Design the sequence.
C-alpha cells in the first residue's frame, strides 16, 4: 500500500499548504482586529461594524448592489443564452464576444467612457449609489457567461427542448421547466461569482465617487485601521459562507436524487 | 382527431422540399400514410429521413410543400400544438425528472391532474415493461430502458401520429431486436399511425406494414416488405434492399435471357436489348457439374441456409443461396453450373 500512503501524505501536505495560504492572512486579520490598545482583546472593532453608521450603511448598500446585480445578470443572461443556443446558434460567437469584452477593458477606461452615460442615468433614473448596478451587471458578464455556458454545454439543450415541444410545451415552459433546472448549478455559480465580485469592487465605485463597502473600508483604514480590517474579514467570511452554502445547495439537490433509488 | 379506422390519423406529405444551402435534404417528397399504419422510412445516411420526420413534427419548416393530417393542412401549426409523439435518435429524457415525471410531462402540458397523470403514466410504463422503474432518473437506466421510457412518454399523450427517428440505433443487436418487436406490439395494440425511420433494412422489413425507400430527398418506392424485396421498381431499391447479383441479360419482349435461362421481367425493366439483371441470391441455383459455367470461390454458413460465392467463367462473381446440406458438397474449387430460377427480375440499362 505504499503508493496510496505517499499519495495520502502528499494530499495532506497540499491541503495544509493551501489551508495556511488562505487561513494565515485571515487569522492575522482576526488577531489584529480584536486587539486593543492595552495589549488585551476586545470586540470593539467588530461592534463598530454595526455601530458605525457609515459602515453599516455601506454594508447594506453593497449587499443590495450584489442582489440587484445578480438579479439583473440572471434576467439578462439566462434567457438570452438559452435562446441563442436553441434558436440562433449563429449568434453564439457574437454573444460570447460581447460578454467577454468587459474583461479586456480596464476599469478606468470604463469609468471614463461611462461618464456621459451616467450623467444621463443620474438625470433620468436617479443618482443613487444603486445605479452602480448597471456597471456591475456588465462587469460580471464574463464570469457569469462562462459559468452558464459550461452548464449549457453539459446538456443536450436542443434535443431536450425539441422533446419538450413535441410533448406540447411552449417556449416559456421549455426554458423555465426544462433547461433552467438542468443548468441550475451553472446559474448558482454565476450568481455566486457575481456576489463575490460586487462585494469586493472598489475601483469603479471609488472613481465615480460612490460609497460602497470597499470604499468605506478604505476610508476607515486611514482612521480606524482595526474596524476596516474587521470589515474586510467579515466580507471575506461572508463570501466563503455563501460559497459553502451554494455548493451545499447544489450537492443537496443531487443527493436527494440519488437517495430515491 | 380520431378517424373511423382507429385512433390513428391519415398523414400526407405533399411535395416537401427543404434545402440547406446547396444541399437538397428533401426534394419533392410525396408520401401518404394510412390511419393506423406503420411505415418505415429506409435509406442511406443523409437521404433526408430525419428532415422529413422533423418537418412532420413541426421542428423544421419546409421550403415547399404541405403536411396534411386527417385532411387538414398543419404546415403552420407549431410543434407544441401538433398532436404527435416523437422518439428521438439521441437520448432525450429530461435528466431532472423521474421516469414517471418524464412520462407524465406531456399530460401536464395538457393540464391533466396529478392523479390521472400518475395512473396513465403507470399504465404506459407497464406497456413498455418498466412499471418498476418509475422513480428512477435517466442516468440510472440502460440505453434500452431510456428509449423505452421515451416511447412511453410519447405514447402517454395518445398522439394521433407517432414518430420514431432511429430509436434503436444506439443499442446493441440483441436489445434492438427485442425492442423493435416491442414497438411493433405496442403500435398494434394502440393502433397509432407510425413513421419509423431507420437505415437498417432488416429492421424496416421486419416490423413495418409498408417500407418506403428514400434516396436523395425523394421516395424511390413504397411497398409492403415482401413486394419491395421481390419486385423492386428501381435499381436503387433492388441494390439497397437485400443482396443482389448483377448479371448480363438480353431482353426480348416480356422475358430476358440470363445465364442461358429465360426469366420473366418486372415493371420498370428496359424494353429491349442488352441490360443488367438484378438477381437475388435465392433466385440462383447451383449444382455440381464437371462441365459447368462457374467454380465455387467460398461459402458462408448462415444456419439452415448457406451463401455460396461462385466465379462465373469469364464473368463476375455471384452469390447464391442454397441449403446448407448442398453447400457442404460445394468445396471451394468445385465446378458448378449456376442457373436462374424463373422468378421475375428487374433488368436495368447496363453501365
Ligand atoms: N441543420 C442542417 N444544416 C445543414 N444541413 C443539414 C441540416 N440538417 C440536415 N442537413 C443536411 O441534409 C441532408 C439530409 O439530412 P438528414 O438528417 O435528413 O439525413 P438522414 O437521412 O436522417 O441521415 P442519417 O441516416 O445519417 O440520420 C444531409 O445531407 C445533411 O447534411
Ligand atoms: Mg437521421
Sequence:
Amino acid at each position: 500500500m505504499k503508493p496510496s500512503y505517499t499519495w495520502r501524505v502528499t494530499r495532506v501536505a497540499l491541503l495544509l499548504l493551501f489551508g495556511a495560504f488562505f487561513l494565515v492572512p485571515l487569522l492575522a486579520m482576526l488577531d489584529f482586529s480584536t486587539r486593543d490598545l492595552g495589549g488585551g482583546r476586545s470586540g470593539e472593532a467588530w461592534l463598530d461594524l454595526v455601530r458605525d453608521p457609515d459602515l453599516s450603511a455601506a454594508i447594506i448598500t453593497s449587499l443590495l448592489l450584489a442582489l440587484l446585480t445578480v438579479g439583473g445578470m440572471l434576467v439578462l443572461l439566462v434567457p438570452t443564452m438559452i435562446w441563442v443556443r436553441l434558436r440562433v446558434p449563429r449568434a453564439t460567437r457574437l454573444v460570447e464576444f460581447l460578454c467577454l469584452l468587459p474583461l479586456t477593458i480596464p476599469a478606468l477606461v470604463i469609468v471614463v467612457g461611462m461618464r456621459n452615460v451616467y450623467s444621463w442615468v443620474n438625470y433620468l433614473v436617479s443618482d443613487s449609489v444603486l445605479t452602480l448596478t448597471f456597471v456591475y451587471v456588465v462587469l460580471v458578464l464574463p464570469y457569469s457567461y462562462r459559468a452558464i455556458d459550461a452548464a449549457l454545454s453539459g446538456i443536450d439543450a436542443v434535443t431536450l427542448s425539441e422533446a419538450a415541444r413535441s410533448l406540447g410545451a411552449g417556449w416559456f415552459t421549455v426554458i423555465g421547466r426544462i433547461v433552467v433546472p438542468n443548468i441550475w448549478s451553472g446559474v448558482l455559480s454565476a450568481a455566486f461569482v457575481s456576489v463575490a465580485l460586487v462585494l469586493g469592487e472598489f475601483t469603479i465605485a471609488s472613481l465615480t465617487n460612490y460609497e460602497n463597502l470597499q470604499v468605506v473600508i478604505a476610508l476607515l483604514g486611514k482612521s480606524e485601521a482595526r474596524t476596516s480590517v474587521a470589515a474586510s474579514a467579515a466580507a471575506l467570511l461572508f463570501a466563503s459562507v455563501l460559497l459553502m452554502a451554494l455548493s451545499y445547495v447544489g450537492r443537496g439537490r443531487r443527493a436527494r436524487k440519488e437517495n430515491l433509488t | 382527431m380520431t378517424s373511423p379506422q382507429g385512433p390513428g390519423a391519415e398523414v400526407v406529405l405533399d411535395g416537401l422540399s427543404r434545402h440547406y444551402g446547396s444541399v437538397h435534404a428533401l426534394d419533392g417528397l410525396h408520401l401518404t400514410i394510412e390511419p393506423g399504419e406503420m411505415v418505415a422510412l429506409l435509406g442511406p445516411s443523409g437521404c433526408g429521413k430525419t428532415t422529413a420526420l422533423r418537418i412532420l413534427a413541426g421542428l423544421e419548416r419546409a421550403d415547399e410543400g404541405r403536411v396534411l393530417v386527417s385532411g387538414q393542412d398543419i404546415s403552420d401549426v407549431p410543434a407544441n400544438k401538433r398532436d404527435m409523439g416523437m422518439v428521438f435518435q439521441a437520448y432525450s429524457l429530461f435528466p431532472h425528472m423521474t421516469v414517471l415525471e418524464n412520462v407524465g410531462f406531456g399530460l401536464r402540458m395538457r393540464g391533466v391532474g396529478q392523479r390521472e397523470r400518475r395512473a396513465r403514466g403507470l399504465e404506459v410504463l407497464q406497456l413498455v415493461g418498466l412499471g418498476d422503474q418509475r422513480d428512477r432518473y435517466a442516468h440510472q437506466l440502460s440505453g434500452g430502458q431510456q428509449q423505452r421510457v421515451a416511447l412511453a412518454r410519447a405514447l402517454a399523450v395518445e398522439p394521433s401520429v407517432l414518430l420514431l427517428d432511429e430509436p434503436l440505433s444506439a443499442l446493441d443487436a440483441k436489445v434492438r431486436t427485442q425492442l423493435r418487436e416491442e414497438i411493433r406490439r405496442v403500435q398494434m395494440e394502440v393502433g397509432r399511425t407510425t413513421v419509423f425511420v431507420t437505415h437498417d433494412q432488416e429492421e424496416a422489413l421486419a416490423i413495418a406494414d409498408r417500407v418506403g425507400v428514400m434516396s436523395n430527398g425523394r421516395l424511390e418506392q413504397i411497398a409492403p416488405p415482401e413486394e419491395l424485396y421481390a419486385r423492386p421498381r428501381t435499381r436503387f431499391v433492388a441494390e439497397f434492399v437485400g443482396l443482389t447479383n448483377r448479371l448480363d441479360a438480353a431482353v426480348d419482349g416480356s422475358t430476358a435471357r440470363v445465364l442461358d435461362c429465360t426469366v420473366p421481367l418486372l415493371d420498370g425493366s428496359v424494353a429491349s436489348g442488352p441490360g443488367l439483371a438484378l438477381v437475388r441470391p435465392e433466385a440462383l441455383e447451383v449444382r455440381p457439374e464437371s462441365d459447368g459455367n462457374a467454380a465455387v470461390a467460398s461459402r458462408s454458413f448462415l444456419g439452415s441456409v448457406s451463401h455460396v460465392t461462385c466465379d462465373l467463367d469469364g464473368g463476375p462473381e455471384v452469390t447464391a443461396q442454397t441449403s446448407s446440406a448442398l453447400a457442404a458438397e460445394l468445396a471451394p474449387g468445385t465446378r458448378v453450373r449456376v442457373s436462374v430460377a424463373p422468378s421475375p427480375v428487374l433488368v436495368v440499362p447496363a453501365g
User: Anything to note?
Assistant: Chain B has two domains: 11-235, 243-348. Residues 243-348 of chain B form a domain with the OB fold (Dihydrolipoamide Acetyltransferase, E2P) fold (CATH 2.40.50.100).
